[in-house]
Amino acid sequence: MEACKPLNEYAWLIDRIRNYQDKMMNLDSAVDKVIDEMPESFLLKKFLEGNRAEVKMMFLTEYDEEKHIEMEREESWEEGRIEGREEGREEGRVEGILCTSKLLNYLWKNGRNEDADRAVRDINYMKELMEKYKDELLINL
User: Fold this and answer.
1) Residue-wise pLDDT tens digits, 83-121
2) Which of 52, 53, 24, 23 is nearest to 36 (CA)?
3) Which pTM was predicted?
4) Do residues 88 and 104 lie in contact, with contact meaning Cβ atoms separated by under 8 Å?
5) How far apart are CA 70 and CA 73, in angstroms?
6) How buried is 31 (Cβ within 10 angstroms: 0-12 exposed, 13-18 middle, 19+ buried)?
């Protein structure tokens, strides 16, 4: 970057603007202050002073675009999380129905109608039976 004076000056400009923004200065004021503080020896100074309004607009647009992209990224992540949760819940419901069906069929086939009736009324008892017979039922709990 040292070999390219305008690029080095631009990097200085950006660094100063960010430093002023970190000190709670708004972008418009930070751009003005940095252009005013820019050393006279900088090749970019005359151009930036002569096109101050356009320079500010460019910075505002660039910064707004970065914020917009970040906001969209965050919204997409949140939408993905919500969608993933919904899919997980649906898969869980389906798996729960299948496990319940397997357990009740197992109990009925083995003449354990009272256990089946109790399991339908008592979720904790159903969980206990699923845990007890998970190997026979091929249930992953």
Assistant:
1) 989 998 999 889 889 889 999 999 999 999 999 999 999
2) 52
3) 0.45
4) no
5) 5
6) buried
